[in-house]
């Protein structure tokens, strides 16, 4: 089947706190289901794809991963167990995300933006989990201190900075230069770039989901700083 003309509406962009939604089936394979809209976040930018359930009239499907179609990024797939074979296009379903896992991702993703604001170096890698995360920085010298990073991160969190999404529709090339991650391009969708702004602390192009206030992150600790290569320092943080 040709999936190039299909499109999933991204509910998580405007409603990251949405936990349940209704949708219609767009397409199904032996293992995955595409819907006309979803609040399941598709893996990308270091943030894992959401998990949860899709409830149809005659069955409940466990969603084990969510991702964008490789050839058509406008289409989002949900890996399902058991497979969605037999679900017809246009059939109504209900989606329920694993909220505790997603909320952990939102808190940690926002925390990593704050970490990025503290270290003046390009980011070469990122990984986010529900209880921890890490950023890799292009730093030739070991100039980082765990205790200092922990202290400064928690100070930023406690200030209760507002976090908001900004959509850039003009000067996109200039906006893309704000991207700190060297190997990842800014997320461009429908001629606009989504940015995440944390008060006057940080402004970054980002397509992930985030909390509305830095205080929602909770207390964190810089657990480890590693030298991964001559120009690579890995900074790992976790919730306390």
Explained architecture:
By secondary structure, the protein is an alpha+beta fold. Helix content is 18%, strand content 38%. It folds into 2 domains: 9-97, Beta Barrel (Elongation Factor Tu (Ef-tu), domain 3); 101-239, Threonyl-tRNA Synthetase, Chain A, domain 2, CATH 3.30.980. The strands form 4 sheets. The chain has a 6-stranded antiparallel β-barrel with strand order 2-3-7-6-5-8. β2 (20-28) and β3 (32-35) form a beta hairpin. α2 crosses α3.
Concise overview:
The protein is built from four helices and 16 strands. With 240 residues, the protein is of the alpha+beta class. The chain folds into two domains: 89 residues, Beta Barrel (Elongation Factor Tu (Ef-tu), domain 3), CATH 2.40.30.130; 139 residues, Threonyl-tRNA Synthetase, Chain A, domain 2, CATH 3.30.980.10.
Calculate the mean pLDDT score and round it: 92
Enumerate the spans where pLDDT stays under 50 for 5 or more consecutive residues: none
CATH topology-level fold name of the largest domain: Threonyl-tRNA Synthetase, Chain A, domain 2
CATH arch. level architecture of the largest domain: 2-Layer Sandwich
Would you tell me the structural class of the helices and strands? alpha+beta
CATH superfamily of the largest domain: Threonyl-trna Synthetase, Chain A, domain 2
Q: Major beta sheet, specifics?
A: 6 strands, antiparallel, barrel
Indicate the overall shape. Answer: elongated
With strands numbered from the N-terminus, the spatial order across the biggest sheet is 2-3-7-6-5-8
Main location: cytoplasm
Subcellular location: Cytoplasm
GO molecular function: alanine-tRNA ligase activity; aminoacyl-tRNA deacylase activity; ATP binding; metal ion binding; nucleic acid binding
Protein name: Alanine--tRNA ligase
């Amino acid at each position: 089947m040709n999936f190039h003309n299909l499109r999933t509406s991204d509910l998580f962009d405007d409603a990251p706190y949405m936990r349940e939604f209704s949708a219609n089936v767009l397409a199904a394979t032996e293992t995955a289901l595409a819907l006309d809209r979803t609040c399941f976040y598709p893996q990308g930018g270091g943030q894992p794809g959401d998990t949860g359930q899709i409830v149809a009239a005659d069955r409940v499907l466990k969603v084990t991963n969510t991702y964008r179609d490789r050839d058509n990024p406008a289409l989002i797939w949900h890996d399902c167990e058991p497979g969605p074979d037999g679900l017809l296009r246009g059939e109504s379903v209900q989606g329920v995300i694993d909220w505790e896992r997603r909320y952990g991702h939102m808190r940690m993703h926002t925390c990593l933006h704050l970490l990025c604001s503290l270290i003046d170096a390009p980011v070469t890698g990122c990984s986010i989990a529900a209880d921890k995360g890490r950023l890799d920085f292009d730093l030739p010298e070991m100039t980082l201190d765990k205790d200092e990073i922990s202290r400064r991160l928690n100070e930023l969190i406690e200030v209760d900075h507002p976090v908001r999404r900004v959509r850039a529709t003009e000067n996109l090339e200039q906006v893309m230069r704000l991207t700190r991650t060297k190997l990842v391009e800014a997320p461009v969708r429908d001629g606009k770039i989504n940015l995440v702004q944390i008060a006057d602390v940080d402004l970054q192009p980002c397509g992930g989901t985030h909390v509305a206030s830095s205080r929602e992150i909770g207390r964190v600790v810089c657990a480890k700083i590693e030298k991964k290569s001559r120009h690579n320092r890995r900074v790992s943080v976790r919730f306390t």
